Amino acid sequence: MGIFDFLSKQLVDVIDWVDEPGVLAVRFPMQDREIQNGAQLTVSSGQTAMFYNEGVLADAFLPGLHTLETSNLPVLTSLLNWDKGFSAPFKSDVYFFSQKEQTGLKWGTQQPITVRDTEFGPLRIRAFGSYSFRVEDVAVFAVKMMGSLDRLTAADLEPQLRAAIATALATGLGGGEIAFLDLAANQAALSEQLRAAVEPAFAQWGLTCTSFFVESLSLPEDVQAMLDKSSSMRVVGDLDRFVRFQSAQAIETAAGQSGGVAGAGAGAAAGFAIGQQMAAGMTGAPAGAAPAGGDDAFAQIEKLHKLLTIGAISQAEFDTKKAELLGRIR
Global pTM? Predict the structure, then answer.
C-alpha cells in the first residue's frame, strides 16, 4: 500500500497523508480499524481532512497537528451521543483532500468551432492551450466529485474538465465580437476572457480555474492558404529598390565568373532587355518602349519576382512567363 502500509496496531493512533502528484483526494485506509481516543491527526499544508459518520460529513480539519477528542469533534460527538466524552475507540471514515494547484494540463478543440467573424464572415477555428486548477470548496467537491470513491486524481477529472472548457470556448468565441486576427494578436487578453468563461463550470464542482492559456489559434488549411494568398497580394507594391539590389547582386556574381567584367556587362544588358520584354508582356507596350503609366522594366521584374517569392504565383507560372518574354527578345 506504499505510504498507507497497514498499521500493526488494531487501534489507529496516528492519521496522516503524504501528498502524491496528481492525487486530489483519498480515503484513509483503516479496514474496520477503530480510531483511538487522543489519536494524533496531522494535516499538511494545502490539505483538508474530513471525518464522516455513516456517509454524513461530521468534522473538518485544516492544516496542523490535532489531538482527536470531543472538544474538536463536535459534530461527531453529537452524532455518536458522546454526552460525557469518550474513552473507547470510535469508527469514522477519514478523507484527505489536496488543495494544491494542479498544473500543466492541456486542452484543445477536438472539432473546429464555427464563429461569425466580423471581417471574414463564418470561420471554423481550432484552439489549443494549457490550464491549471485546484480544489476550492472542499465540501462541494467531496459531495459532487469524490462521493464514496477511495481515490480521485486529476487525470480522472480531465475528460469532464475538457468538455466544460470546449463548451465555454464555443460560447466565448462563438459571439464573433472580436475579429479572428485581433484574437490571434492578443492571446493574453483572450486567455483571461476564456478563463472567466470557464470558471462557472469549474465552480459547480468545487474547483477554481487558477490559470488558462491560449497557446495557438488556427484555421483549416484551405482557409489559411486563401488568407495567406490574400495577404501576399496586398503586400505587393513598389519594390523598385529591391529589384535594383537584385540586379546589382547579379552583376557582382557575373563579374566573378569566367566572363569577368565583360560578362557582367552582358548579363546586365541581358537583364535590362528581359525586363523590357517582361514589362511589355504585362502592360501590352512594345518591347524597348517605356511601359504605360511610367512604370519601368525594373518595377515589372520585381513584381513578378516578388509574386514568385511570396507564393502568389507558382514556379511553373513564372517560368512560362519568363520563357515567353525571352522569346520576344530580338
Answer: 0.61
